[in-house]
């Protein structure tokens, strides 16, 4: 349980669902900033908020924005912090951090009904994908108002749990039982490719919790979901997803975890162990966090590199885009963990011993 | 629960049978349920956390319930929270969040100790000859105790980095808590065997750390010194103040040597302008300082900043002790006292010397309560007191000399420990420090105490066959369950309860909210860890129904599939058939495509939905065949049709629509698509259908009346061609 120089836990006295680095353009005089979605069920009635925290002193929030219900997604763009909630609303807080200037789109028939777990920022526009099967694109109008465009209404036939932009015209979603979808707004706002994924433990279908797309390889999605499953989906071979981890999937290595994979992110810090062939076919290293408290790097045909093994779930992770060696994570036991990876010891050295 | 609806505002008032028992008046909580009286029935049940669910129902057909808009009943949630956490009621209040941090932190240590215990037990069972390694076990418990102790705070390190005030008498430290004091006390007596020989000195240290907590019982050395500290800054001549000397004697009597030396150096005779005329006085003060700082102490080491000379072994100590006492006596009999002009200094210093000589009268006067007197005995009168019996005897004597004015959880615990009475220790822990301490401290009590071990593990019929240990763990688990943030750690404790833990764990898991998919997955993860497959199936079914009812059909089907719930999937399939049966020819079928996609390629798991999948394939293929009119596509469509007709899961009411859709295929030219056997099968099905028509439960479909005859005709002509083609 003890903290080490490279990993510190900061207790926060309420449940932390998501934590994100703020882009450094938003850095104030108090140093690097974090955004966290917190939920406190012990107060009556239960309160949910977005906190803006200084990395040096996460105990005292600098700014706090109240949410109507528990946050189901949190993302930061250089200009806006956005959170969606379990009642289907979306809240946009400008980076001036003036909570009076926050814009809210309330949940309901005109927007989402129920939790919105898919949320991502792509330049000027936000995509939201909810468990009600609706997909919206939210953009800013010229006069400072927000414009909501309904891309799709699945009428509850399929529910989405994750969304990620690939380009201003394309995004990917994932959900319960329906795998991953690739949407192209140029082709009539429709799903242009679909993949059910590969799931471990002999199950046919699972729940996708997180999708990430590498900024420089926009045709590859990495997907994390149920039963420790992580797979990559290359649009060029849409029927052949590549297993990265999962029970009984990649034969010679133990799966990195057997429980829910809550979040996956392409790890720009870890060098691929096979630099020569990494040119185009290999999937780049992926960071994941899970319900059983594992924070690890997984790579195609490699032994996973475990960075943390906590006693409680890690609900959310984020890699600082400016300092990719620094990772922040939201721990189930009411604390934020900050992991500083050693900049000198590259992960490459740690993995020189390969399994024959 | 005895309760009755009142006529008044519709509030529920708890109804107590026996008034006048001196019980506090019951708390009344008005509930706004919006159901007009009279009330027919009220159900009260626990929801998650502190929430109470109250369901209020009207009689189904009570008079006056005319309008449809009358509410027939409602369920309201009442939060009973507000203060009552499982934390301890001590002077240094631990707030709820801090208590939760301690609770979280103690889970890994507890789980590790339990798994080690089980491993040792397994090893012992395997090799009966070798007794479980006792020494090893003791080390494990000590490690556990240290881990938990570190969660409760660290008294040795300063609260924050700060420059020390040169005039500070008491060091600024992290505020001690009663919880930590109790934990350390139990560790000292029950676990730490290594330091058993130096027990008296450890108790002196313990008192030094936690003396401030005893202030609730009356004055303490700590309170005397902190009061003097406030006064000190404004004092001109410090040695004229009686509180100065009182503070000094109190600090010396409990062995705070560094404080004594520090305070003595504030004596006026040290000031440069007074040195000349108070030379003798200053010499006496300095002589006492030297004696205080060289006092022999029976302990292995001293933390930095503490004074005295360490003696690790008894002979060393006796030698040093004799020598030191000789020096004290010599100073007391010195002729210099007559030359000391300052009366108060002379009396004060002589008092300090008498304390060092172990004069019981002066010690009793200097100390503030029996615990301090107890500690001073170890320092100045009986440094070799060992064993519980001796200590208990001494404690009794101290209590007689200084009767306690009030009670404090710590003193009660102290007496319980000394009287070698684990029952009392457990009761004191329960009453004063809450279920967290009891649950975790039981491991300390049983570390090396066979009597406590038997007492805690004996199964008791009056407790329903569970042991005391299990009872306390269950109580703690209940406290954890009552908070929606800590319920997730309760399974660790429930799983260590062999008799009732698993049953309660199942109830706990089944009671978790299922509205949020993420929370459901967290609950299912616990089911997976404890291999509770039945429970997880139930949770998935409930989640499926919830999502289905709330219009999230996809999520509903997903959960039913995960639960392998054939019954519900079949019912969903029936619902879908109703829809499709009505609109079989138009393309509203497209609406269901998403759902079919969700069901995945493995139709086996989808129960009755399997039909829909095949039906979709058939419709698609038929469309292609009719558009392209190619023989290959038509043949494929016929294959799909035959599969559908052969499959028992295809509902009978779809037979005719299927055949009617395929009429054009039967008339396919130039060659018939079906052979004799296939056509015969279809004709057989048609006859079966005509028979079924006579039954009352037959559901007719929306096909034109000539549909049957046109199908018959087409099949007949196909049969004719097929017979001709048949070689």
Structure description:
The complex is a heterodimer of chains A (356) and B (727). Chain A contains one helix and 28 strands. With 356 residues, chain A is mainly beta. Chain A has a four-stranded antiparallel beta sheet, with no helix packed on it. In chain A, strands 2-3-4-5 form a four-stranded antiparallel beta sheet, with no helix packed on it. In chain B, 57% of the residues lie in helices and 5% in strands. Chain B has helices at residues 96-126, 134-151, 178-191, 199-210, 221-232, 242-253, 257-264, 279-293, 314-332, 336-339, 343-357, 360-366, 370-381, 388-401, 409-418, 422-445, 450-457, 468-481, 490-494, 501-510, 517-529, 533-549, 553-562, 566-582, 593-599, 609-628, 631-646, 655-661, 663-666, 676-692, 707-725, and strands spanning 3-5, 12-14, 41-46, 51-57, 73-79, 296-298, 309-311, 459-460, 466-467. Chain B is built from 31 helices and nine strands. In chain B, α2 (134-151) packs antiparallel against α3 (178-191), α3 runs antiparallel to α4 and α3 (178-191) packs parallel to α15 (409-418). At the A-B interface, loops of A face α1, α2, α21, α23 and α25 of B.
């Amino acid at each position: 349980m003890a903290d080490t120089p490279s990993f510190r836990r900061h207790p926060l006295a309420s449940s932390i669902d998501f934590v994100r680095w703020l882009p450094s353009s938003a850095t104030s005089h108090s140093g690097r900033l974090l955004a966290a979605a917190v939920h406190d069920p012990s107060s009556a009635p239960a309160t949910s908020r977005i906190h803006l925290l200084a990395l040096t002193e996460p105990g005292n929030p600098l700014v706090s924005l109240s949410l109507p219900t528990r946050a189901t997604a949190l993302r930061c763009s250089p200009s806006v912090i956005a959170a969606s909630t379990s009642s289907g609303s979306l809240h946009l807080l400008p980076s001036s951090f003036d909570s009076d200037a926050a814009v809210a789109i309330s949940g309901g028939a005109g927007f989402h009904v129920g939790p919105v777990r898919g949320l991502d920022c792509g330049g000027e526009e936000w995509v939201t994908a909810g468990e009600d099967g609706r997909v919206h694109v939210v953009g800013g109008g010229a006069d400072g108002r927000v414009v909501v465009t309904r891309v799709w209404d699945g009428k509850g036939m399929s529910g989405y749990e994750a969304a990620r932009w690939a380009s201003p015209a394309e995004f990917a979603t994932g959900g319960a039982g329906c795998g991953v979808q690739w949407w192209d707004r140029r082709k009539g706002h429709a799903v242009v490719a679909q993949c059910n994924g590969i799931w471990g433990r002999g199950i046919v279908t699972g729940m996708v919790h997180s999708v990430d797309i590498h900024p420089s390889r926009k045709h590859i999605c990495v997907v994390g979901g149920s039963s420790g499953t992580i797979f990559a989906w290359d649009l060029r071979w849409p029927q052949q997803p590549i297993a990265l981890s999962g029970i009984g999937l990649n034969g010679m290595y133990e799966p990195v975890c057997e429980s829910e994979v809550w979040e996956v992110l392409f790890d720009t810090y870890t060098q691929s162990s096979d630099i020569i062939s990494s040119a185009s076919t290999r999937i780049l290293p992926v960071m994941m966090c899970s319900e059983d408290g594992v924070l690890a790097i997984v790579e195609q045909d490699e032994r996973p590199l475990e960075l943390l093994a906590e006693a409680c779930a890690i609900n959310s992770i984020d890699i600082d885009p400016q300092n990719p060696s620094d990772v922040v994570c939201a721990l189930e036991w009411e604390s934020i963990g900050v992991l500083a990876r050693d900049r000198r010891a590259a992960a490459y050295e740690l993995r020189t011993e390969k399994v024959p | 629960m005895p309760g009755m609806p009142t006529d008044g505002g519709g509030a529920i008032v708890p109804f107590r049978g026996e008034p006048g028992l001196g019980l506090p008046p019951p708390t009344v909580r008005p509930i706004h349920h919006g159901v007009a009286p009279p009330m027919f029935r009220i159900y009260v049940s626990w929801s998650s956390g502190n929430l109470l669910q109250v369901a209020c129902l009207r009689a189904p057909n009570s008079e006056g319930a005319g309008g449809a808009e009358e509410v027939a009943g409602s369920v309201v949630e009442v939060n009973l929270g507000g203060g009552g956490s499982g934390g301890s009621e001590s002077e240094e209040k631990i707030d709820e969040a801090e208590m939760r941090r301690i609770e979280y932190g103690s889970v890994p240590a507890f789980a590790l100790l339990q798994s080690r215990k089980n491993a040792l037990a397994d090893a012992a069972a395997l090799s009966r000859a070798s007794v479980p390694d006792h020494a090893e076990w003791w080390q494990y418990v000590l490690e556990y105790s240290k881990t938990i102790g570190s969660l409760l705070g660290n008294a040795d390190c300063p609260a924050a980095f700060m420059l020390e005030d040169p005039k500070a008498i008491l060091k600024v430290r992290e505020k001690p808590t009663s919880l930590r004091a109790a934990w350390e006390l139990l560790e000292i007596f029950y676990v730490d065997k290594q330091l058993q020989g130096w027990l008296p000195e450890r108790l002196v240290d313990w008192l030094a750390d936690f003396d401030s907590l005893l202030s609730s019982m009356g004055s303490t050395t700590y309170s005397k010194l902190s009061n003097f500290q406030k006064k000190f800054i404004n004092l001109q001549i410090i040695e004229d103040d009686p509180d100065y000397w009182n503070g000094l004697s109190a600090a010396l009597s409990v062995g705070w040597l560094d404080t004594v030396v520090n305070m003595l150096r504030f004596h006026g005779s040290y000031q440069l302008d007074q040195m000349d005329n108070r030379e003798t006085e200053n010499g006496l003060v300095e002589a006492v300082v030297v004696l205080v700082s060289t006092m022999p102490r029976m302990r292995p080491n001293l933390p930095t900043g503490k004074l005295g000379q360490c003696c690790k072994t008894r002979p060393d100590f006796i030698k040093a002790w004799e020598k030191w006492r000789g020096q004290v006596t010599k100073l007391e009999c010195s002729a210099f006292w007559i030359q000391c002009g300052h009366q108060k200094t002379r009396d004060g210093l002589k008092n300090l010397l008498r304390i060092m000589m172990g004069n019981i009268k002066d010690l009793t006067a200097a100390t503030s309560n029996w615990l301090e007197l107890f500690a001073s005995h170890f320092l100045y009168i009986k440094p070799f007191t060992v064993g519980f019996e001796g200590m208990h005897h001494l404690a009794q004597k101290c209590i007689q000399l200084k009767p306690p004015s009030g009670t404090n959880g710590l003193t009660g615990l102290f007496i319980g420990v000394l009287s070698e009475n684990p029952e009392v220790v457990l009761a004191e822990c329960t009453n004063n420090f809450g279920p967290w301490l009891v649950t975790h401290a039981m491991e300390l009590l049983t570390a090396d105490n066979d009597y406590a071990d038997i007492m805690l593990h004996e199964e008791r019929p009056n407790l329903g066959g569970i042991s005391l240990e299990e009872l306390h763990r269950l109580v703690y688990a209940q406290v954890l369950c009552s908070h929606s943030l800590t319920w997730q750690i309760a399974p660790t404790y429930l799983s260590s309860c062999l008799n009732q833990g698993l049953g309660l764990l199942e109830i706990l898991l089944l009671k978790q909210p299922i509205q949020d998919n993420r929370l459901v997955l967290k609950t299912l993860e616990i089911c997976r860890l404890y291999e509770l497959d039945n429970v997880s199936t139930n949770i998935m079914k409930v989640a499926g129904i919830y999502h289905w009812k709330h219009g999230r059909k996809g999520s509903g089907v997903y959960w039913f599939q995960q639960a392998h719930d054939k019954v519900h999937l079949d019912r969903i399939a029936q619902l879908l058939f109703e829809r499709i049966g009505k609109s079989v020819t138009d393309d509203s079928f497209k609406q269901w495509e998403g759902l079919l996609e969700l069901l995945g390629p493995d139709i086996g798991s989808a129960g009755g939905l399997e039909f829909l999948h095949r039906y979709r394939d058939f419709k698609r293929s038929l469309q292609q065949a009719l558009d392209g009119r190619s023989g290959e596509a038509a043949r494929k469509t016929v294959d799909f049709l035959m599969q559908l007709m052969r499959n028992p899961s295809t509902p009978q009411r779809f037979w005719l629509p299927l055949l009617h859709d395929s009429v054009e295929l039967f008339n396919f030219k130039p060659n018939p698509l079906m052979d004799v056997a296939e056509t015969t099968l279809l004709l057989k099905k048609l006859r079966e259908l005509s028979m079924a028509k006579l039954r009352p439960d037959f559901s007719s479909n929306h096909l034109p009346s000539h549909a049957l005859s046109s199908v018959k005709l087409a099949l007949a002509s196909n049969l004719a061609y097929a017979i001709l083609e048949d070689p």
